[in-house]
Amino acid sequence: MTEVKIWQWGLIIASSLVLFFLSPWAKDTNQFFKAVQKKKAPNTFMLMGSLIISWIFAKSITNAANLGLDFGIVGGVAYAGYYLSFAVAGIVIYKMRLHGKYTSIHHFLSSKFGKTAVTIFSILIAFRLFNEVWSNTMVIGSYFGDMGTSAYYWSILIFTALTLSYVLKGGMSSSIFTDVVQMGLFSILLAVILFTIFGNDNAITTTEVVNSGIWSFETGLNLLFAALLQSFSYPFHDPVLTDRGFISSPNVTLKSFLWASVLGALCIILFSIIGVYAQSQGMQGQAAVQVGKAFGTVILLVINFIMITSAASTLDSTFSSFSKLLALDLNLGNTLKFGRWSMVAIAVLGTIPVFLDAEILSATTISGTMVIGLTPVFIFWKDKAPKISFLLSVFIGLLFGFLLIFKWFPDDLIFTTGKYADLLWINFWGILCCLIVYIIPTWIKK
């Protein structure tokens, strides 16, 4: 085992043990499912930090660096477009709580569209959470060995078990508390990497970073506009995000979500500079890995530790959201025992695809297209609509998601060229169709 691998194992084990001992112990369901500590909900800073780090997951910062390599800073800005999701969700949830008096997304759906809507929605988000487990742990595994090697599998199993151990202690309380610690770590480590990039012998200048991309559809704008379009539906199928919209007061929640939107986007853009630097040095492959290797063991370990930190924060949030989904939202068992066993179940089920050599899916493109049918459901949450509107819109969204996966969409309806052109126009036409089929039953009913 190389020196780097030994240090990587040390970082995973040490950081997980520290988080385990620091994590609060939940003694009741309010602490476990709603992060209430000493009768207080999380404040603006804690909620904002938790939102940002739970979304800056291992796969997303890998994507950000690679987009910086492919498209320059335009790639980073394009990927940061997804962080409009926080602002959209924050404003909609704020209004739903204040004017609709809803206590959760499931409460809203069951009140307005009935049990069928709740069932379909729950299946969608359960699949999302299941997908989050293996898509993040496989990124961690790739830092320890090639896919299929024993080092790859063992790192995934141990990392998942260690993350599960500390979130079992306190559920959502553990998740939010450790998220704040992980956000602090992420900020420090990112600063170290940027300081190295701008301060070494082959340093890149700020001007070079700003001018590193071309603002055209072919070189990043396809993705930017697709991200902005998806931001009106994407956040609502992510319980990691929406669960945090109902645990603090409406005002604290709104401020947290708006700040998270700005600062989360900034973090992604800053991380994409790693890819911009890789581009300036003529590097190829995985941008973060190549830059780490170029700067030596210490920076490679810093980048690895960022991956570990971000993956752990997403994983613990996934476990806590899944247990809340089953226990509270679906009312299957509002007890600590049930909540903890739910976490164990998603950890085991979500790890199985790793051994089936499942290809890592992009959680922000394909899955994002499949849920565009939620756009009118939440944007027009206050307007009256029959149950059929929900069903039509959601199923049309799923249909367009499959058109993207299987590349069945007609080229005549794609009006730009380059990478992500199909993603942009399938989302554009898909959202348009979802809006039409959502509104038509309302007109007929009138």
UniProtKB/TrEMBL annotation:
Any GO BP annotation: sodium ion transport
This protein's UniProt keywords: Cell membrane, Ion transport, Membrane, Sodium, Sodium transport, Symport, Transmembrane, Transmembrane helix, Transport
UniProt subcellular location: Cell membrane
GO molecular function terms noted in the UniProt entry: symporter activity
Membrane topology: Multi-pass membrane protein
Reaction it catalyzes: L-proline(in) + Na(+)(in) = L-proline(out) + Na(+)(out)
Transmembrane segments: 6-25, 45-65, 71-93, 113-131, 151-168, 180-199, 219-236, 257-278, 298-317, 362-381, 388-409, 424-444
InterPro entries according to UniProt: Na/Glc_symporter_sf, Na/solute_symporter, Sodium:Solute_Symporter
Superkingdom field: Bacteria
Main location: membrane
GO-annotated cellular components: plasma membrane
PROSITE patterns associated with the record: NA_SOLUT_SYMP_3
Family statement: Belongs to the sodium:solute symporter (SSF) (TC 2.A.21) family.
Protein name per its UniProtKB record: Na+/proline symporter
Species: Maribacter spongiicola
